[in-house]
Amino acid sequence: MAFQLPNGSTFNVAAAYDAAVTITAISNANPAVVTAAAHGLSDGDVVLITSGWAKLNGRIARVTDSDTGTFALDGIDTTDTTKYPAGAGAGSVKPVSTWVQVPQITEVNTSGGEQQFATFGFLEEDDDRQIPTTKSPSSMTLTVADDPAQAFVAIVEAADERRAIEAARLNLVNGSSILYSAYLSITSTPTLARNNIMTRAITMSLAGRATRYAS
User: Fold this and answer.
1) DSSP-derived 3-state class of residue 180
2) Among 9, 23, 188, 207, which one has the highest count of C-beta atoms within 10 angstroms of its own C-beta?
3) Residues 83 and 158 reside in one and the same domain
4) Total number of domains constituting the chain
5) Are 192 and 161 found together in one domain?
6) Do 46 and 74 fall within a single domain?
């Protein structure tokens, strides 16, 4: 049995990216191996993936097993050729070059991700059935102290205007991390409540499944 408190965890968002790297192929493997000439990536780099595979497109992953012309996507399993048709995964990766911390977080709330179901029944049956379909959209809201001098504010406000998928990272106190791909937005004015600090809300609308790495 293992459990932990979130106390001491930190949040980062991507402040800058290097130029996108063209990938000519992704293998059906665990972890998936990417073919990319002169990619210049090193183990531990975090990349935002654009791929012909819908289930991989928009996800964030960490580079591992980097070699000349190839590297692997740590934690990405593409062995299922039904979900990842052979030869159709090419695209690009955009490496995160700089992270900025989002400090002074007072609260984190998550919503969505609930399993949806299709309910049906046959004429001869007395009871309905249900089968799982999709999951509802997921989002995270970070409530932060209103401090315009913090470096992250301009980064998140620019991302809000850009309306593009961004990389974010949660660093847990045990050394593990969770990578998110999300559209970022931030409230334009702080909340005002007597005897409470002024806060703003950053909303992360998740654009792909999170990737979690152990310490």
Assistant:
1) strand
2) 23
3) no
4) 2
5) yes
6) yes
